[in-house]
Design a protein that fits this description.
about 170 residues, alpha+beta, 5 helices, about 45% helix, globular
């Protein structure tokens, strides 16, 4: 049987193919991140000397301090709570605050903030936060923190995801 081309409706334009690849790449990156974080928290990493409840409380306080610093645009205080790798990535406090202003304005002055219970193994922690911006849009923040050699918790990253809900005021 000779090969016959697909009927016209099944042929995608280059624009449609690129859009589909972009969606697929985003889905795979989110899945990879979820698997990676799940593996970190499911693994049997050595436990730190401090009890988990104390660490969880401290983890939440670090994130609260950074959000408070961002609310008053205190670049130095917010930047000081980042781990050395993140500080190296941004270079200085002003560059960090400029990035937050441009890409993550919902972190500057959220209308509401809800901290969920942090998860930690004593070395690595994840703090989830839900915020609502001034327009009523809901956002999910996932902070990843690392315990430093001096036992201080520092933020190594934050993933911001739109929840797709609007809160009526």
């Amino acid at each position: 049987m000779p090969h016959q081309p697909f009927p016209q409706p099944f042929i995608r334009s280059p624009h449609q193919r690129g859009h589909r690849r972009s969606k697929a790449a985003t889905a795979w990156s989110l899945l990879f991140t979820a698997v990676l974080l799940g593996g970190v928290f499911a693994s049997d990493l050595p436990q730190a000397a401090a009890p988990k409840s104390v660490s969880s409380q401290v983890v939440q306080e670090v994130v609260q301090q950074q959000l408070k610093a961002l609310a008053v645009e205190d670049a130095a205080s917010a930047f000081a709570l980042a781990d050395p790798g993140m500080r190296t990535q941004f270079g200085n406090a002003e560059a960090f605050l400029d990035t937050v202003r441009q890409k993550y304005p919902m972190l500057l002055r959220p209308a509401s903030v809800l901290y969920l219970k942090p998860e930690t193994d004593g070395t690595i922690a994840m703090q989830k936060v839900r915020v609502t911006d001034d327009n009523g849009a809901a956002w999910s923040l996932t902070y990843l923190l690392n315990r430093q050699q001096d036992n201080q918790w520092r933020i190594s990253g934050c993933v911001v995801t739109a929840e797709g809900q609007r809160i009526l005021a």
